[in-house]
UniProtKB/TrEMBL annotation:
<dbReference type="InterPro" id="IPR013813">
    <property type="entry name" value="Endoribo_LPSP/chorism_mut-like"/>
</dbReference>
<dbReference type="Pfam" id="PF14588">
    <property type="entry name" value="YjgF_endoribonc"/>
</dbReference>
<dbReference type="InterPro" id="IPR035959">
    <property type="entry name" value="RutC-like_sf"/>
</dbReference>
<protein>
    <submittedName>
        <fullName>RidA family protein</fullName>
    </submittedName>
</protein>
<feature type="domain" description="Endoribonuclease L-PSP/chorismate mutase-like">
    <location>
        <begin position="9"/>
        <end position="145"/>
    </location>
</feature>
Length: 157
C-alpha cells in the first residue's frame, strides 16, 4: 500500500511545514550522503525565535519540552526538505533520532521528552517513522534552548 504524500499527511494532522530555520553558527542544516540525509541539531525555533528557554525540570516543564521536541522535529524535516529540493516524499524511512535535553540535575525524563519528536515522526510516516534513538541529558544547549534534535532519514534514489 502506498504511503500518503508527506505534505498531505501534514495537512491531515493540521501541521504546516515550517520554513527552514537558518543556522546559528558555521554549518549547513542538512547533508545528503548516498541515500541518507542527516540534519544538524535543530533547535525549537518558531518564526526565528525560541518560545521557551531553560532547563527541563526547572524553568521548563516536561510537557513543554515534549512540545519543543516536536517543533525541533518539524525544523529537522524543513532541513531535510531543503536538502531534497522540497521533495519529502523521497523519504523511505526515518533511521535515527538523537535528542539532547538541557536537564536540571534531578531531571531523569529525557526519553519522555524526546518522545515528542518520535511520536510526531510516527504520526507522519507511520511504520516508516519507527527509528533507533538516543535521548541524552546535557547541562546546556545553544541559546539556552531546552531541546535539540538531530534526524537521519533514508531516501529513495
Amino acid at each position: 500500500m502506498a504511503r500518503i504524500p508527506v505534505r498531505q499527511r501534514l495537512a491531515e494532522l493540521g501541521i504546516d511545514l515550517v520554513p527552514l530555520a537558518p543556522p546559528v553558527a558555521s554549518y549547513i542544516p542538512a547533508q545528503l550522503s548516498g541515500n541518507v540525509v542527516r540534519t544538524s541539531g535543530q533547535l525549537p525555533f518558531v518564526a526565528g525565535q525560541l518560545e521557551v528557554q531553560g532547563k527541563v525540570g526547572d524553568e521548563v516543564s516536561e510537557s513543554q519540552a515534549y512540545d519543543q521536541a516536536r517543533i525541533c522535529a518539524l525544523n529537522a524535516l524543513a532541513a531535510i526538505a531543503w536538502a531534497l529540493d522540497g521533495d519529502l516524499d523521497r523519504i523511505v524511512s526515518v533511521s535515527h533520532v538523537t535528542g539532547f535535553v538541557a536537564s536540571a540535575p534531578e531531571f531523569y525524563g529525557q526519553s519522555r521528552v524526546v518522545n515528542g519528536a518520535s511520536d510526531l515522526l510516527h504520526d507522519i510516516f507511520g511504520d516508516d517513522g519507527v527509528h533507533t534513538r538516543s535521548a541524552v541529558g546535557v547541562a546546556v544547549l545553544p541559546l539556552n534552548a531546552p531541546v535539540e534534535i538531530e534526524l537521519s532519514v533514508v531516501i529513495a534514489d
